[in-house]
Amino acid sequence: MTGASSGIGEAFARRLAAEGCAVTLVARRAERLAAVAGGIRAAGGDAEVLVADLATEAGLTALADAARDADVLVLNAGITLAAAVGTTPTAAQERLAVLLATGVSRTCEAAVPAMVARGSGDVVIVASIAAFAPMRKSALYAAAKAYAVHYARSLALEVGPRGVRVCAVCPGYVRTGIHEAAGLGHLRRRVPGWLWCDPEDVADAAMRGLARGRTVVVTGLAYRAARPFLASGPVQMTWRRLTRRLGSRT
Asked: What are phi and psi of 45, to 5 degrees?
């Protein structure tokens, strides 16, 4: 599973290892990966580590090689980005697109055929509620997440009848370090606590979705209720008020 050094990826790793899966943890941070793997082994699980930058060709190639025999593929690696149009350097745009979108499809294209040949396998793609909502100053992020969700839907139509289950899980705000890393720490103060969930909630929702044959799962009652209205003017205005950065709070 990718992005396994913390947050959602770590939650998936610990859950699957506890269920008896031998897990391969993939991320850039070697020390954090080693710590997560050590914790899994200490609990009696089986964990290996693959240090790779999945925004690079070398990293994607290494992941594809490691994933070819996987029974369960969890694609969670990612970053978040909030920036006005025209202010994101090209290299950063490309990195985001690979991590959140094209790298996901490339990995599936490498790993899923073997699942189809075996007649079984699970694919979890961690997307976002942003896939369903236009987001001011987050067009690149929202578009990449929409790509991932639509790829998952199309993949499920093709391989579902052949024994491979596919689920795109779409959380809202999750309590991880990703927002602080992107300079969006103010969201912890601005967004009400009931709009946040824990990484374990995302893993639980995805696994329930697979078991129930759900291709797209939105985590959290509030987000499920609001999903049909996310593009509406009132919801967009409320969202902007909740998430805007205040100079006195940064």
From this structure: -90, 175
Burial 102-126 (b: 16+ CB within 10 A, else e): bbbbbbbebbbeebeeeeebbbbbb
Q: Which of 141, 147, 151, 223 is catalytic?
A: 141
The whole-number pLDDT of residue 249 equals 31
- pTM value is 0.86
Active-site residue flag, 151: no
Q: Which of these ranges, 94-103, 132-141, 147-156, 176-185, has the smallest mean pLDDT?
A: 176-185
